[in-house]
Design a protein that fits this description.
7% strand; 64% helix; 2 strands; mainly alpha; 150 residues
């Protein structure tokens, strides 16, 4: 078995970048009383009013039980409301309340500063290349299967 030094393992670089971004966004949304998963859920709900918990979990890349916990906490704070779907009574539609919209606007203003600061570290061409390279990495990772050991 050939081993790679940690510095050559792309996964460790992806993980470090993800952790740094998560820490920066966490600091940005904390004054609004949100966690990053709560912020992400509110952000997706603002784009897709009435989204189901299952669809929201997929959009936020978390498990359905995790999303249910996030939604329960947001609902207890009065930031979201969940109502039965008009035709599919076993599906709850999730929407932001007016207070949820205000909290999201506050958190998003600071989160956008993180995104803009990050983007400013690259030229337009570099940003385009980075997005393309990350897209290729994601496409590979979503279709890759672990090698079967015999």
């Amino acid at each position: 078995m050939t081993s790679l030094p940690v510095a050559e393992r792309l996964g460790s670089h992806f993980k470090h970048a993800e952790q740094a971004l998560n820490a920066a966004k966490s600091a940005a949304v904390k004054p609004s009383g949100l966690t990053v998963p709560q912020y992400a859920a509110l952000l997706h709900m603002s784009d897709h009013p009435g989204i189901s918990a299952a669809a929201l979990a997929r959009a936020c890349s978390v498990t359905p039980p995790t999303m249910n916990t996030v939604l329960k906490n947001l609902q207890e704070r009065g930031l979201v409301e969940r109502t039965p779907h008009e035709w599919h009574k076993n599906i709850l539609e999730t929407r932001l309340t007016a207070e949820g919209e205000a909290v999201l606007a506050s958190a998003d203003a600071r989160a956008v500063l993180v995104e803009r600061g990050l983007a400013a570290e690259f030229t337009e061409a570099e940003r385009k290349t980075l997005v393309e390279l990350l897209g290729r990495a994601i496409a590979y990772l979503e279709t890759a299967r672990p090698a079967q050991s015999g």
